[in-house]
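Journal club side-thread
Mid-discussion, someone asked how the predicted structure for our own chain would compare to the paper's figures. Pasting it here so we can look after the session.
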Amino acid sequence: MTAVETFIGMGSNLGDGISILGRAWKSLGEIEGIKCLGVSTPYKTAPVDMTSHHWFTNCVGRIETDFSPSVLLKALLQTEASFGRIRDEKSFGFQDRALDLDLLYYGGMILDTPELILPHPRIKDRLFVLVPLMELAPDHKDPLSGETVSGMEQQLKKRMKEKMVDQQEVIAGSWEGQI
């Protein structure tokens, strides 16, 4: 299989998020079949679509992989578990977590299965994904809508300004020697 450019959303709101995301990024690079190409600035972000007292640290990583989407998803889930992530299927909504890895884009693939939806269905509604994704690929086109990442970011900011959606706080941070 030919290597596919893929974008991974990374988040943490329990523990030292910058350290956790830095170690997770290095861990992904140690998996045979994954080549880490670049990672965005980490951002401190208020929780979105969940109630929590813990802010998140978020970033986006760009990788190349020869894994299929389902094999890559399994690798991401195993990496989350190695950082203590427990997915409680009985709980309603999103929970606090030490590490969350979301497969955002897998090349230009469109996929809708019970285990995985590509592209990630909430990219256009999450500033904590769009802002770091802008650093890596502002002209990347969403295969469903045809919109660029920069266009989606502008549209979300417009919807926030017009109070069509809640405000989302995104504050740039630094890797502080973590990566």
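Post-session note: Residues 4-172 form a domain with the Alpha-Beta Plaits fold (CATH 3.30.70.560).
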